[in-house]
Amino acid sequence: MTVLGLGRVIQSVVSGVKIEDSPPFVVTRKVDDQTFEGVWSRASDTTVVFADHILDGTSVTHHGGPVAGDPSGHPVQLIFWGDWWNQADGAARRALFEQRVQDLLETPYFHELEQYGVHAPVWRGSTTVTRPGPPGTISVNGAMTASLDLIDDLIDDDVFPDPDDGARFAFLVLMPPGFVIQDANPANGAHYYDYDQDGPFDRDNYWAGWIRYFDPAAGENPEDTMRTLSHELVELLTDPEGDGWHTERGGGSNEVSDAGQSPGIGYQTAVVGGARVQSYWSQSRNRTVLPLEPGYSARLSAVTHETARRDLDSGTFRPEAGQLAFCVADREYWWKTEEIDQRVTVTLATRLFHSPKVTWRIAGQEVSGSGRIRVSTTIDGFNGRDSLLSPAVVAIDYEVQPDRLILNVPSPGGSFDFDVACTVRDGQITGRTQSEPTSSPAVNVGLQGAIIELDPSYSDQVEACLKELIGRWKQVERPFRKPRPGDPIDQLGGLLTSTLPAYTSGIEYARARMVEQAAHAAAIVLAPEEAASYVRGALTLVPTSRTRLPAGELMRVVGVRQAAYAALKAQRAREAGTSG
């Protein structure tokens, strides 16, 4: 584990979790002694690939006709047919669909159509037509004919330009309440083409589709309007005149959007740009797909709360012979240890997941509902006043809530770290998926299950002693100047703090940084034996470090630093003598 700075970053190895399910390292920012923040976990691929389909065949082919291949994008023109769209309810729904379509056009939803030579469409606008009135009860073909005739009249009346003036429009006619399809197998929408004739040699085709009204009073979902609209728009772009991209068969599901259902479940959909839209066939993947917006991500944060505290042990001590004897009074000081029970609240934050579905893991164990797990770990406790690492099995009671995990952890007699992770998917995706955007956020939580308190008069004297020596060092070496050629490498910076676990308190962490500086100062200012005594005494301020970094290792580095500094001083003395 690597710990950097107060408000520091903690990097820990995930244990017991497969790498494909979670990153091999959990990076956490420890905000304060109670708050831990994981990093945002971003979904790497935001295209939903479905596991099944109902395409009337196994592939689509191009049949020689036009597709929506204008590089500038074909303009989408909405036509709201009927006076109802000007009434209060209709106007509100019209505004909703206008915004839904514009937002959808700004997303990557159409990107997989590039394999068919189709460029993403663009927004042109909307218009409401009240005269002639919309059809009432009618057949599917009759509805298509009425829609095409309406557009032909609007072109003749110069409401819309001639079809050969620039990229062809994608006309989409939205029907009002009272529009009913009378066929035995009624459709929610359809698309086709017709032509506008201006003189004997000026005949230009135009493309259009219609979408029926979905009545909430009849238990229908108005969002199915956008699902149907996306279906018809994609097919209008890829097969506008019946000789574009479709299967060799002429059945009812031979176009690319027709494939987008999972048998036994229904339409394959997801929310894109705020609208529920349908999948379509990808020839390159041999699957139906639904490209989503980039930015699906999730993050975990954890907050700890003390719930109970109990005394463990207590006693007195005198400074060991030689350690800081020159600046700490030789007398009795008190100490005591306590154990702490804690509650942890792990909260999930998401971006773009419209209905997050979460699978939680604690220390690699998957959990759901509520219960208790046992985690094998190493705890950092005390034997009297001495720090002691020992194996332990920690009991963790958990309760899974929709966006959080509540943990109650009785003290195991020591402090320890553990990881909480989860996998997040979007519950708004319908249909059987082969792959879909998922995020796997994680957070490393440090729990102080046992602490030691030292007599403040002792701690204050040690800190004052450290500051005094650090001050002397700064006067001698000027440590904040720019490094010069030949300066020895600082091997002490981070040597102690990098070993500290996530449960290290902010006070102890700050003291560890001070001890690092003091060890550096001792190597420069004091004689070797005096420096060794000084550093061993300073380490009493950082009990956690004594289980992570043997004092001998710190002293070895101090000795290396002393030797390097002595060699540098000798070299500079020789250089000064030569110059003289």
Short description:
By secondary structure, the chain is of the alpha+beta class. It is about 25% helix and about 35% strand.
Report on the structure:
This protein has 580 residues and is α+β, with helices and mostly antiparallel strands. Strand 13 and strand 14 form a beta hairpin. Helix 4 crosses helix 5 (506-525), helix 5 packs across helix 8 (551-579) and helix 6 runs antiparallel to helix 8. The strands form eight sheets. Strands 1, 2, 3, 4, 5, 22, 23, 26, 27, 28 and 32 form an eleven-stranded antiparallel β-sheet that branches. A five-stranded mixed β-sheet has the order 9-8-11-14-13, sandwiched between helices. Strands 20-21-6-30 form a four-stranded antiparallel β-sheet, with no helix packed on it. The chain has eight helices and 32 strands. Mean pLDDT is 87; it is low at 1-6 and 12-23.
Question: Main attributes?
Answer:
disordered N terminus; single chain; 8 helices; alpha+beta; 580 residues; 5-stranded mixed sheet; elongated; 11-stranded antiparallel sheet
What's the main sheet like? 11 strands, antiparallel
Binned strand content: 25-35%
Estimate the global geometry from the Cα principal axes: elongated
* Computed structural class: alpha+beta
Helical amount among residues, as a percent range? 10-25%
